[in-house]
Request: fold
Amino acid sequence: MGNSHPSIHYHVHFSEEGDAKRIKKACKGAGTDETTIIKILASRSAEQRQKIKEKYRALYGKDIEKMLKGDLSGCLEKTILAMLNRPCEFDAKLLKEAMKGVGTHEDVLIEILCTRANSQIKAIKEAYKQLFANDLAIDVQGDTSGTLRKLLLLLLEADRDEGVDVNESMAEKDAKELYEAGENRWGTDELAFNTVLTKRNSMQLRATFKAYEILHGKDIEEVIKSETSDDVKKAYLTIVQCTKDCQAYFAEVLHEAMKGVGTKEDTLIRILVSRSEIDLPSIKERYQEIYKTPLAEAVKSDTSGDFQKVLLALIK
Reply:
């Protein structure tokens, strides 16, 4: 969804052996050299980090994660370990974590499943199966309910049209159906919303939102806000906002994570790691435009120590 250009580029003079040895050395003896570890891993692509992991195992007969876990702690450890996953594995682990124990963190399920492309969702489902020997759809089904469950299961089918063709008469028909399903009756008929929002391509959806506004004089976001509530509202708005401007959506989530008292570190880690190879530079641009301050400055004033260092390294 949206345009993408990654912030992490292939490191030209890349040697997985050299990196593996330098990381090993950074963890040896008294005191860990966090700066070196950050410097190496934050300037490599996810694919290069996989090669470093393989080389480390070949050289030292154990997993680099195990060693780093013993040497790092707190948010820095969380971020570094997140970076050592393939993107689909990181998402799969986040989803699993969100459904663990009592109560589900629906916002994480919503953020991931409502913003990923078909290919990403398919890769997440495969990674989930490999990591947890479970079917993601079955776990989501058992952990959510009502309209949200239906919506997430539709998203997990990963069969959104990803073309760029716009069918104007379909846009008008969909806009009419959304009106009939929402404002025009008591209780919103979520079926129409679910189908349109999970199956149409983003250009088509934009045309539908425009048609809605012309036909009914209201912005679709306003309608969703007044017609739905809680997690369903959040999920619908996520899809709509991501369709309109995906990078602005993530800029807003980052901003919310740093607003007020207490920073939501997990959110910062989740977005900066998962978007670093998709569209982080564009998210930075949008952040600056919307909040009139550079993302790096906001992160700087909201975090500290090595955690700050690793996030800034990802942002740069």
